[in-house]
Amino acid sequence: MKSLSNENGMVLLLVLFITALLAALLSELAFSTLVDLRLAETYRDSSSAYYLAKGGIQVGSMVLADDDNDYDGDNELWAQGISNYPVGDIGLVSISITALDGKININRLISTSGNIDVVVKDRCLRLFNILEIDTAEEHIDALIDWMDSDNDPQPLGVESEYYASQTPSSFCKNAPLDTLDELQLVAGFTQEEVDKLRPHLSVYGGDKIHLNSASAEVLYALAEEMEISSAEEIVAWRNDNPFQAVEELKLLPNWESFYWAVNSFLDVKAQYYRIDTAASISDGRCRTTATINKTDNALLYMQIY
Hints:
Layout: H1 2-65, H2 77-80, E1 82-87, E2 91-99, E3 104-105, H3 118-130, H4 136-147, H5 160-164, H6 191-197, E4 201-202, E5 209-210, H7 216-221, H8 228-240, H9 259-262, E6 266-267, E7 272-281, E8 284-293, E9 298-304
Parallel strand pairs: 3-4, 5-6
Antiparallel strand pairs: 1-2, 2-7, 7-8, 8-9
């Protein structure tokens, strides 16, 4: 009888062990299934947010296409933006549009013929100096070497041999910048300096500066006759009344001190715009940035992150 009792005890222990093992396996399977389900839901929501964010770019492009008046200013529909707009019952989208022509197009340092544009270089020097970028001229010369098509190390010797000697080694692009982030790759530029310059520079833009979106620093950089106080006065004025014509600068008290030096460099119309969108659907998030040429509604650049 004692042997039978021991056998029954062992069977009971074995049954309990198998039951516990099955429970653990079922628990692990349930957890794994739940994780897979959550991953699938997150992928679904992220994919939906991606398409919603891209749709926001299309909406922004349509708003710009409908804007056909004689000036572009912050009091217009395109500049108002959309914040957390509900899209049915599925999610939210935000859209903001910024004119880029109020910034100095850094790529215009090199003309289409491959020569240095001395007017743009002078503007950059004045801008770098007002922003207190150390060794401004050396920075700009290094940038010119980065963008020109040759490997002639003039004037700083920062062409291919310089970049190849760095750790890690790199190369001199010898082509225009695709994004402002490339400035960090140019000899001498620090992250802090790039952050200082970012609000005032662009890799797109024509030969004129958009009066209604240019910073005071950019306006100051246009000519020696422009004082920073006059540039700040222009910005303060347009915050209440965007300029509908360049000639309206004559409404400012001290217009005669700078107007004739800068009026030919200014325009109240903008051609290049950046559209930023942010979309959220449940756990899915997506942000996009696109650059649009308003003249022909062409998409020049888009980044999704």
